[in-house]
Amino acid sequence: MKPALGVCYYPEHWPEEIWAEDAARMVEAGLTWVRIGEFAWSRLEAQPGQFTFDWLDRAIETLGTAGLKVVLGTPTATPPRWMVEKHPDMLAVDAEGRPRKFGSRRHYCFSHLGYREESVRIARILGERYGRNPHVQAWQIDNEYACHDTTVSYSAAAIAGFRNWLAQKYQSPDALNRAWGNVFWSMEYADFSEIDPPALTVTEPNPSHVMDWRRYSSDQVVAYNRVQAQALRPLTDAPLIHNYMGRVLEFDHFDTGADLDIASWDSYPIGFLSDRLEDTAEHKRRFLRQGDPDMQAFHHDLYRAVGRGRWWVMEQQPGPVNWAPHNPAPLPGMARLWAWEAIAHGAEAVCYFRWRQAPFAQEQMHAGLLRPDSAPAPALAEAAQVAREIEEMPDVTPAQARVAILFDYPSSWAWETQPQGADFDYFRLVTEVYRGLRRLGVNVDILPLAGADLSAYKLVLGPGLFTLPDALRAALATHSGLAILGPRTGTRTPNFAIPVPLPPALPGLDTTIALTESLPNGAEEPLEAGGCIGRWLERLEGSAEVVERTTAGQPVLVRSGGLHYLAGWPDPEAMVRILRSACAEAGVATTDLPDGLRIRDTATHRFYINYAPEPLNHDGVTVPAAGVTWTPFR
Ligand code: GAL
Fold this sequence. Notes:
26 strands, zinc, Rossmann fold, Beta_galactosidase_Trimer, TIM Barrel, globular
């Protein structure tokens, strides 16, 4: 497959006279995709039912005849002001009961059925007009679900919807009371209409209540996405895409992904390093202008799974962004490196955000490929270089990974609901396992729990899984490779209770979690073989073979055959050691990479990706600072 580059463009922001020149410059830079329209509702329908399409017709025509393929967005992330007049109760409401008002974007509640219908209406109207337009070769539905903390809403529509959802799930208040354990603290309900969202309670609400609320909220995103997809399906053969975000876990992306053809995500490496990553000050300084070396790759692999193999980067950071606490500029080379890294992970397309920096409104400090005066910004030349390199490159064919990490959105909601240790974070746990594998140069696939086919994998990791579905238990029992589950895996029932027999109750593995501790910083337990366990430590009982123990003799990693249970959260040293020896036993080759260097194998090439601010050597290959290079497999 030949990957392609693209850019996000807002014709409605610029005088029509410059569209043709913009399009010509995009083509000249080697871009093939252009995403438009996702925020243009007020220009398409200035008043209810009063449509103005001629400008969009001409924009699509101009871009298309220049040779670009258009991704057309449904504009539903930005309902115009009149919409809020028409449906005053469509606004999302925060946990304190305050409406989240008009004046930016994403000001809607997923549960509001009136707004859902309006979204279907505009999607259908756009589909009818442009669904067979030859220039429109892909669709983006909405924009970044959940961004700005918009999944969970406490609106009247959400409360009514939740009660309904509960009534369907449990059928009777008694069944719900039993499932949630509402006898505890006299929380029993006599009618579904008595149940509120779990907010503003005096002390913590019942975790089963919170978990169902989170499931309900996720289901609304899925339903909202589905109705737009259903509206567009009969009107177009072009693929339907959504652009997800980084470290957004509030809804189940595998569920939305099932209704779409391609997953895409918006990659802002430097913004993420500053804004949504826990790490040492030293690490953040070292990678200040490059981003974390594993954050992007993790999301590439995650969204490849969400897209069932088909995925894009819909927005790629080109320079400083405007939204992180601090917004440094990328090192020269990073706009090229990020694109190649995505391609090496199988991206079909990488689109830079945005074409020209907007001198007005909220994002005026956000770089584009062009400056506000239309002069090239530094990333333009790098994008053009990637485009030329793609032309010279044979097709990039993905290689089958031999190591997989099981990933589960509800597990994130569960441990947020009941962290038990203040710093127990599911995303962090999973990405630390991922980082350990990447430091060893290993290609990783991410797998959802539902229908996970383990047969291709020599090593499967399942950290922090809230429940362990029966089908997965059965798959693990017959899996011929190695598997390491835990910590905390399978430690709750779907209703959020501790199962008896006690967890992890793994097939053929005689080990039981007898007691669980969470540990503050500084209270780590050293391991006999080096490194330590911190944050989380489960005390195991049983006759399973002990692989790793603390210096005090407490088992931490046990096994029976290939099936392992890990009873704590290893520090980076212990993590890498455990993973290295598991890979060695499983027959997965590893190599120890210098700090900041990562490798990624495709079917034909090994890519060396250097996030470090200095050149690094590995395997006799020298990779420039902020550089990427590749060698064909002989
Ligand atoms: C994304 C969003 C874009 C733009 C960009 C700025 O989250 O989809 O519309 O706001 O961030 O970095």
